[in-house]
Structures are given as structure tokens and as C-alpha cells.
Amino acid sequence: MKYPILFSLVLFVLSCNIPDPAPADLNNRPSAKDTLHFFSKNVNDSFTVYINLPAGYRSDSSKHFPVVYLLDANLYFDIMATVLNNYTAVGLTPPVILAGIGYKNFQTMDSLRNRDYTFPTAIPEYEMPVSGGAPQFMAFINNELAPALDRQFRTDTLQQTLMGHSLGGYFTCYALQQRLAGKQQRFRNYIAASPSLHYNNYFLLNEFKKEVPVHHDSLNVYITFGGLEKQDSLCRQLSLLLPSGITKKIDTYSALDHMDTQLPSFIKGLQWQAAPGQP
């Protein structure tokens, strides 16, 4: 369940349908990157949160921006901030506040993500020293982190996205399931790259089966798998389980494996959510 240190990072997806680039505003580049530190009473631990503000944030004090919460930020924040800054400058992604939730260092992340991204406690065969803390981590985001960022920055509280990969994708799907069950209302958009839905004998899929969802307030859900993961049947099952009232898209990147899907999924997902319902 841990990341290898080195793996291939894919930046472009050839199948993306993207708009014609807008002229770059090279005199109005991103204005700030901040590193914030939070102690969570819910998790009883500290987190490092990385903030990237979009170009134009300082120049227009009346404008509020969508927030994208990125998991595994020790690994993905720097490269995603760079890609978003450059893509936004040429009109390929919308301007957003990127909030990366991380730990004090990569080694800590590689250990504690098992604790924070999973529920319920792992079965013995996974050999996870700590696990099952997703409810506490969800409470940290909903009740501590997000309200603090809403106070400190000009956030659009109605347009907030959660995205993660692998176990981070599992937590993203867990947050969606909690939203469908009426237990959290923070996120409208969900991007899950290669979510580890096999966790605990497909526990989360069984939870989706139990839900009888009602009104879902225009939720947008983008989930991907790599074709080399051989998850075709899981894709079909997941598509059928997600309620028809939400806007959903499940993509398979045919040439990619589990550790290759994160960056193209994040970028494509943000582009798709800017115009949900597009093929």
C-alpha cells in the first residue's frame, strides 16, 4: 500500500478535449505560495498544508475562487501547482486555489496516509500498523481546515473539489459516499485516480450499494483507472452504483498502470469539471 520512490509521471493525456488556448497574461503570474501548519484535534496530529493562489488573486479583491483540496501533497503539490499555474495562464484550466494536505515530510506521509485515508481498520493481510482513521481525517477537513481556509482566503464555498490517488482516491470515494449518506456537505466535486476500492474486500463498494440517495445538489464525480490495472469489471460496477442524479464520468487510460494515472487524472478531471456533462 506504500508508494515506490520513483515512478513515471505522465503530464499529458492525448485523449483530452481541451479548449483553444487563451493568450497568456505573463504580467499577472501567480501571486503567492504559502505553507500553513495545522494541529487537528480530531486526528490528534499535525498537518502541513500548502497553498497556491491563482494569478489575479491579489488584483481583484472582490473575486472568490474555487478550492481544490489535493491529498498526498508532499508528493504532488509542487508539480500540480506548476502545471495549474501554466495551464491557467493559457486557458487550459480554470483559476483555483490549490490546497495540498500533507505531513511534515515524505516519510511521514508514506506512513500516516494509511491511517488517514482508510476506513474501516485494515484486515490483517494488509499488515498496516495504523488504519481506519478516515472519519477523523474527514472531520479535520470539514470542521477545522476548510473553515480556516474559508476565513483566510477568498474561497468559493459552493465550488470545492477533493482529489486523490490510490488510497487517496479511496478516501475521495469515501468522502463521496459520506456525502450521499448525508454525513458531510463540503465537496461538490470529486476526482479519484485509481482508487484502491479492493480495500477490505471491497468494503466501500458495498457501502455504495446500501445508499438510497435523494437530492445531491449537482455533484460532479470523475474517476479513472489505468487500462493495465485490468479493472474493467470494477469500472462497470462502480458506474452502475453511482446514482443517476449526479454528473459522473469514469475514464480508463488504456496504456497506463496504477502508478501512472494520478497527474493526467487530476488535470483532465479539473478540465472536465469546468464543463461537466461533456464527453
From TrEMBL:
InterPro entries from the UniProt entry: AB_hydrolase_fold, Esterase-like, Siderophore_Hydrolase_D
Signal peptide range: 1-24
UniProt xrefs under Pfam families: Esterase (PF00756)
Annotated SUPFAM superfamilies: alpha/beta-Hydrolases
Keyword list, A-Z: Hydrolase, Signal
Keyword Transmembrane: no
Family per similarity comment: Belongs to the esterase D family.
The name this protein goes by in its record: Alpha/beta hydrolase
